[in-house]
Specification:
This protein is of the alpha+beta class. It has helices at about 10-30, 70-85, and strands spanning about 35-40, 40-45, 50-55, 55-60, 95, 100-105, 110-115, 120-125. Strands 1, 2, 3, 4, 5, 6, 7 and 8 form an 8-stranded antiparallel sheet that branches.
């Protein structure tokens, strides 16, 4: 597991900016979407230190229901990722009877997208410090 070279607070701020940019990119590709937090932020110990997870963002629109939209999702997410010098997102896979998913990881930060009846964005960042040392 790769950890972020950033200090925890900087890593959290970078992850938050990535989440906002990914949301904005999807809105740019699919129109006005209404997002809300569906799960709270959290921290949990990992083998490498601590995993900081931002609140999961959820919209009630099923992005990717049509296979023609899968590439639009990848392009939108890749715009956000690349603006933070992170690897582009692959075209989402799955969807038939299961979750449509894609994710990208770089420098300890992971952006994940999934959809099945609704759509969710999550970002987590792994840092080398112990969770108890972050606060």
């Amino acid at each position: 597991m790769t950890t972020s070279p950033m200090e925890p607070e900087e890593a959290r701020e970078t992850a938050a900016a990535l989440l906002e940019d990914a949301q904005a990119s999807l809105e740019g590709a699919f129109g006005d979407l209404s997002w809300e937090d569906s799960t709270p932020a959290g921290e949990k110990p990992s083998d490498a230190g601590c995993r900081i997870t931002l609140p999961t963002r959820r919209c009630d629109v099923y992005l990717g229901r049509e296979s023609a939209d899968h590439e639009r999702i990848a392009i939108a997410l890749s715009e956000a990722l690349e603006s933070h010098a992170l690897p582009a997102a692959p075209t989402p896979t799955g969807g038939t009877g299961g979750w449509l998913t894609t994710s990208s990881t770089g420098d300890g930060i992971t952006l994940s997208f999934r959809a099945k009846g609704f759509s969710e964005l999550t970002v987590h960042v792994d840092v080398a410090q112990a969770c108890a040392d972050i606060h």
